[in-house]
Amino acid sequence: MWSCGPLNGTGRGEDQLLCQHFHLVLSVFSLLYLVVGIPVGLGYNALLILVNLCDQSSMTMPDVYFVNMAVAGLVLSALAPAHLLGPTTSGWVLWGFSSEVHITLLVLFNVCSLVTMYSTALLCLDYYIERALPRTYMSSVYNTRHVCGFVWGGALLTSFSSLLFYICSHVAARIIECSRMQDAEATDAIMVFIGYLVPALAVLYALVLISRIRKEDTPLDQDAGRLDPSVHRLLVATVCTQFGLWTPHYLTLLGHTFLTSRGKPVDGYDLGILLFTKDLSRFLAFSSSSVMPLLYRYINRNFPGKLRQLIKKMHCGHQSCSMDHAGAQQVMA
């Protein structure tokens, strides 16, 4: 998946040998992800969406955010082969496509990254609201669905600005204003600020507030209407996983912006390191689409019961299954 070609001619034999070793190891991991990770991501994300949408009456606020992230995960899993094996990689290109298709794939990837990061940040904030004010219904399922709609709309608008930079790079000779815009640097700067810094600050602020709330035991903690205690473990695992897998991608964008802002061409050793880290960070970002539904499956205590009920309904077919319906409602309650 990765190539050591840019390091040729730099005179650093140790770096070239080390790059070849990393090239072999990371290529094996990439093949394993394409063979195993993508089917797991597609299957578990689709299962997460199907289980929750078929039993919408039992959905909670965190479930809505995880369904939102699962939709983004489905899109990421579908885009992974084109990105990891296409001309955007530094080596091992199995196929090519036009610049318009490349821009479309890049915009979809940016939209999914924004949806994933902001869903994580809003999940933290709404979890704090739910713990602090459980009976206000500010973080209800109804409101969360509308919030998720705004998240997708905002991600599309933000990525549209990036799309304009790429369009301007193709018509720079005709439009003077576009010729003054540096498409790659501006796009990377926008994505780092809006796609990473803003949600990271929101998550940090929410986690500080949640830690203060958890130190204070109140009678509300015994309220039957509160969220399940496993939600907190799922929240911490989600934040650590998402930011752990997406941080290298945004750091790579920041590094590319810094290198190009110096006004010197990026070539030789710096280019090899940049391409290597870019491909590695992209691989980690795509792997989040397979890891997140697995975390939801094994940490959320309600998901196995919902899955069994869905399988039972599928076995019943068009029959009513009325005898089990009342028992299922009692289990959910």
Give the CA-CA distance, first to last residue.
49 Å
**CATH T-level fold name:** Rhopdopsin 7-helix transmembrane proteins
Rounded radius of gyration (Å): 23 Å
User: What is the CATH architecture descriptor?
Assistant: Up-down Bundle
SS-derived structural category: mainly alpha
Quick tags:
about 325 residues; mainly alpha; Rhopdopsin 7-helix transmembrane proteins; globular; GPCR_Rhodpsn_7TM
Give a brief description.
This protein is mainly alpha-helical and 333 residues long.
Structural commentary:
By secondary structure, the protein is mainly α. It has one domain: Up-down Bundle (Rhopdopsin 7-helix transmembrane proteins). The chain is built from 10 helices and no strands. It has helices at 13-54, 61-85, 99-132, 141-170, 176-179, 183-215, 230-261, 268-299, 303-316, 322-332. The longest helix is centred in the N-terminal third of the chain and has 42 residues, at 13-54. It is globular. 32% of the residues are buried. Pfam families: 7tm_1.
Q: Secondary structure elements and their pairing?
A:
Blueprint: H1 13-54, H2 61-85, H3 99-132, H4 141-170, H5 176-179, H6 183-215, H7 230-261, H8 268-299, H9 303-316, H10 322-332
Subcellular location: Cell membrane
Keywords: Cell membrane, G-protein coupled receptor, Membrane, Receptor, Transducer, Transmembrane, Transmembrane helix
Domain G-protein coupled receptors family 1 profile: 44-296
